[in-house]
Design brief:
With about 550 residues, the protein is of the alpha/beta class. About 45% of the residues lie in helices and about 15% in strands. The C terminus is likely disordered. Helix 1 crosses helix 6, helix 9 crosses helix 20 and helix 19 crosses helix 21. The structure holds phosphoenolpyruvate and magnesium ion.
Length: about 550
Amino acid sequence: MGERALRGVSAAPGVVAGEAIVLARAGLRASGAVKRADRTAEAERAREALRFATEELEQIVAVLRRGGREDDADIVETGVLMAMDPELIARVETLVVDAGLEAADALREAAEQTALELSALPDPMLAQRADDVRSVGRRASAHLLGETVSASQGILIADSLGPADVAELAPRVQGIALAAGGVTSHAAIVARSLGLPMVVGVGADLLEIVDGEEVIIDGDRGVVVRSPDVEHAVRARVDSDKRRLARQTAIARRLEPAETNDGRRVRVLANASTLAELEEATRQGAEGVGLMRTELLFLEATEWPSLDEQVNVMRPVLARLLGQIATVRLFDFGGDKTPPFLRGITARGIEVLLQRPEQMKRHLQAVVEAGRGARLRLLVPMVMSAGDINAVRSMLAVVLGGGDAPLVGAMIETPEAAHASAEIARQSDFLSIGTNDLTQLVLGLDREHSRKAPVMDPSVLSLIAKTVQAGQGAGIPVDVCGEAGSDSNSLPVMVGLGVDELSVASARVGQVRQWIRELSYADSSREAQNLLQQAGHAGSERV
Ligand code: PEP
Ligand code: MG
């Protein structure tokens, strides 16, 4: 069998190859399996297993706290509360006593029922607890069946995982792939904070992988590779060794400025939406956040989040950025980032908010409130014209009622915006080039399925150059927050074109800072100019 790629969603960066460890999923046995006379004793076995799971989770919490990982400990601690939840216990008892399920099956089934209820709740914070409660059920059930979730070194393959599972398994696990799960699940948050590559949402095909099978997890592209050819597997192993070393070096050199060898300073910010990402970015020397993708925090919401819900989710991250740059992008819903309550919409980005002024107002209020104390910059997604920026500013003025206004910047990620960048720049405090969407839109590719992002295509590059010139003409900083800012081929060109800031995935911050130190700005400018000239890009005075 040749290589086979299973596509999912990237939840934590990095590439790793190894042997699959498939987390057992015992099928449910028939109800009525336990004789009536034995059911009371069986229910007690189930309760005892839940107590065992509680104690195990408490031990994991203690270990995490001893290691100074307070945030992870808090997350796992909610699993303790889940295991002690009287409703869960009552549900288990009913399944054993009334339906005659064996204790192990009742535990998984009760957890699944509770999880389904939780995931249907409008509150995204509660909905995300679904995986936690499944994890509790699996843990208690595994105890009864004598199964163990521990594993030798390898790649963990499972349907879903709770954060406690990730934290507990981390020392032995090199990467994770889940059939279900979302990028904002707590398991994904813990994986990111531990630097474990992770792909989620792969679908049922993933569960065909068998224990011991060689697989590659490509957390950068959101792909799991089955039966990788030898060269691919070796490359992945070399890649993960290099990453480990590069990360250690990056952390050691985090305080050195990101400056080319001929003295051009480039500010390196992080694309971070969660606390774990922010912590990793800070460890690697990020000078603030250049892109907080707020929509990712509400992808499973079943209705527009309230003001409090928004503040509660954003505040823990932004509170860590006191006095530092915090670039919060307004909800970029639409396309592959459409939550259930917006299903069917065709609009994307700021258009979705402009069509719903009350929601935009509430969202602006929440961002301003959550970003108090930080050097807040609002970033407007999918801008089409200067009018979009003016509309956001007008609404912001209403919200602020005369208070200090945060900076307002435009994402330049549509061809329309790039063409109108000079006018947009005059209305903006900064520009941020979204090379991911820009590349796909200029070249007519399908972002959700395309495996390519040819940002160095002449037609894309010339629009990036035009945008940089527009920013310089208006005297405002220009940032690149798409993947082109952390790709070793395109980064020198972005720097050579004159961008002031790069905002990159947290795990890439240190590497990007190091690449900048090794660059010559003069050479990079020449290279960028050559590329543009080859592309027949005339009329550019400075490049
Ligand atoms: C981009 O399009 O380059 C970008 C940074 O936005 P997102 O990837 O969130 O669409
Ligand atoms: Mg985009």
